[in-house]
Amino acid sequence: MTPEQRHSGARDAIVYNWPQYAAGLATAVAAGVVARQLPRPVSDFARIGSAAALTLLGTATAAGWYVYDRSDLYTYDWLAALLPRTPSSYLVVSCGLDEVSASLAARWPAARQSAVDLYDPTLTDEGSIRRARRRVPPPAHAVAGRPGALRLASAGTDAVLLVFAAHELRRARDREELFAECARVLRPGGTLIVTEHLRDAANTAAFGPGAWHFLPRAEWLRLAAHAGLHQAAERRLARLVTAFAFTKE
Predict the structure, then answer these.
(1) What is the pLDDT of residues 110-128, one digit of tens each?
(2) Domains in the chain: boundaries
(3) Reduced to 3 DSSP states, what percent helix, strand and coil does the chain have, rounded to the nearest 5?
(4) SS3 category, 112
(5) Residues 6+ apart with CB under 8 A from 134
(6) Considering the domain 74-247 in this protein, what is its CATH number?
(7) Which of 29, 145, 187, 199 is within CB 3.0–4.6 Å of 214 for a Cys-Cys bond?
């Protein structure tokens, strides 16, 4: 999927997460209205709260626009630094929303692609995922899987890609099972690519409390080590996204 074929990433984020945006806007408006009825200095605090809510909405939207619409994130050119050799076979793992498979099929036309969708309402209860899934259905060749069962042969693929997927598994045990499965299906010398926002200072400044939906860098390193994978590379994308390469030795 080329940038021209994609929907606007910032617009998609608003559509998928519209209840949070509506709540933030309602909070800002309510605080501004109530401030007129309150004595000072209480009214000043209400106005500050209203301004803070509007600022957070603005920074989150601007950050999404920069990352998803203006950066080279979805060109996947950055993969060359993490996967020096084009894989002959690879697996895309999604968790309800797959915006990766079509782009990589165009980028690596000679490679064999597999796709596994981990979406399960009991594991991924985010309303945003349900809305995104209705708008962007899984690719026709995707098969349903579980964190502990990717339904691929052992040691049969050169690369596994988890792009904005693994953080949707909120239980540490599910993430550990997924990373163990990724290690199982990789050939010796194969690479797991994990691309995520991190729960760090930059993402907190951009997304406010929403950054707590992300996981810290230490968790991704822990999961890889727990699965017996070794960190080979790390790259910062669009200042707010981090891509890791973990290898199976």
Answers:
(1) 999 999 999 887 766 666 6
(2) 9-70, 74-247
(3) 45, 20, 30
(4) strand
(5) none
(6) 3.40.50.150
(7) 199
